[in-house]
Design goal:
Blueprint (H helix, E strand, L loop, with lengths): L2 E5 L2 E4 L4 E8 L8 E6 L8 E6 L6 E3 L7 E6 L4 E6 L8 E8 L5 H6 L3 E4 L3 E6 L1
Parallel strand pairs: 2-11
Antiparallel strand pairs: 1-3, 3-8, 4-5, 4-9, 5-6, 7-8, 9-10, 9-11
Length: 129
């Protein structure tokens, strides 16, 4: 398993940008698909898929709500996954989590948040109007 720590959240005005970082420890990081999820205020039981990236970085998936605005990438030698967020909207306000799905998970399972080996503690993103 890997241990995950997110950073880079903060308060930003609508239309602004932030880059979130997920730092992983563990030798097997480069073998994991990685994903970002978010949990909005008042939706504590609902964690929403935002973006995912394959182990090589060659395949990415995005929620429709963030396509064209967010970009996920990874740097395997640095054990790091990034989420570049542009053109932020107030509805992007949430706690953002990175997660490592269990090996063999399909993209459908990843997007549902099922069978994850590890989650980070989350980083707060607040977008003001």
């Amino acid at each position: 398993q890997v241990q995950l720590v997110e950073s880079g959240g903060g308060l930003v005005q609508a239309g602004g940008s932030l880059r979130l970082t997920c730092a992983a420890s563990g030798r097997t990081f480069s073998t994991y698909t990685m994903a970002w999820f978010r949990q909005a205020p008042g939706k504590e039981r609902e964690r929403e898929f935002v973006a995912g990236v394959s182990w090589s970085g060659g395949t990415t998936y995005y929620a429709d709500s963030v396509k064209g605005r967010f970009a996920i990438s990874r740097d395997n030698p640095k054990n790091t996954v990034y989420l570049q967020m542009n053109s932020l909207k107030p509805e992007d306000t949430a706690v953002y989590y990175c997660g490592a799905p269990s090996k063999g998970s399909t993209w459908s399972q990843v997007q549902l948040g099922h069978e994850f080996d590890s989650w980070g503690q989350g980083t707060q993103v607040t977008v003001s109007s």
